[in-house]
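All the exercises in this workshop are built on plain-text protein records. A record pairs a protein's sequence with a compact description of its fold. Backbone structure tokens are a discrete shorthand for how the chain folds in space. Once this layout is familiar, the rest of the handout is easier to follow. As an example, a complete record with its sequence and its structure tokens follows.
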Amino acid sequence: MKIALISSLYRCERHLPTFSAALIGFAKVTSQAGLDVHYLPILNAASPAEREQIDKLARAINAANHGRMTPHYVARESLYASWNRGLAHSDADVFGFWNADDIRAADAFFAGYRALQAGADLVDFDFTRVRTVRRLRLFPRTERLLVPCLYDPARFNRRNGIGPFFIARRSLYDAVGPFDGTFQIAGDTEWASRAFDCCHFQRIASSGGDFIVHGDNLSNTGSGREDIEVNIIHMRRGNWHELRPAEPEAMRAAWQTWGNPGAVALPAEQADYLWGADARKRWRRYQRERRQPAQLRHLWLALAARGWLHSEEWTAARRGMAKS
């Protein structure tokens, strides 16, 4: 089976030296193992320095015959529009994605590829979250945390989005349809929510690679846009118990302009929860709780679970648990 690994790149110059070194090593190992990998970097509004580095990388990969690389240079577009573009330029049987600030693990990739060969059509991995933390704000150290695969084929809820290193068969993409380019952050999870209903899924219980947390990551940041997009994913599916407070005006505008292409009927109770009279107060309380230091946040949730104080975060979580 031929494989496509697609990278949507935008303002990534500082990540390119590490990305290039990691990709060259990965390409050598996968090529020696007999895998046919096509690397497709899609550069959005590339700077001259970015173009130079990617062209140099492509020459190195192609000259060594370690797979092949064909860069594409485009005006700026959404991440998921670039993913669709990469797939349109490939006839590969298997596809995955590689962000410039992540590092893929070849051994896990081989295990995922074997799972696809054996009949799976969507494979996801555990992954390693890597971040720099400072004690007393003075002494930096690297923290590595293994994050279990969250995608659960038994139920689709707010906690089981797709991971950064998933791979899938092209036939699943053809059946499910393209990524929704109107999403800016959670388009991979939105696509996975559609695949959830028809895929043969397999988890690989080893790290698919390093997800580097550096402050400019798109996902898992708790941003207002991410909250809105995840709500929309569940609104499209009628998973009302998975909704969480979001900025009311932006939430309503997103749902009414681009979030509801299928004309889903939103119950009045849910509209009131998201943008009714008390929605802004609820959202502000929810934001304050989530911004608390981790220990205080956990204590707050523990007290709320015992009924000793009110917590918007706990109340929202109970909505989901009631339907689990």
Observations:
- The mean pLDDT is 92.
- The beta strands are 2-9, 36-44, 68-69, 72-74, 94-97, 102-104, 122-135, 139-147, 167-169, 201-212.
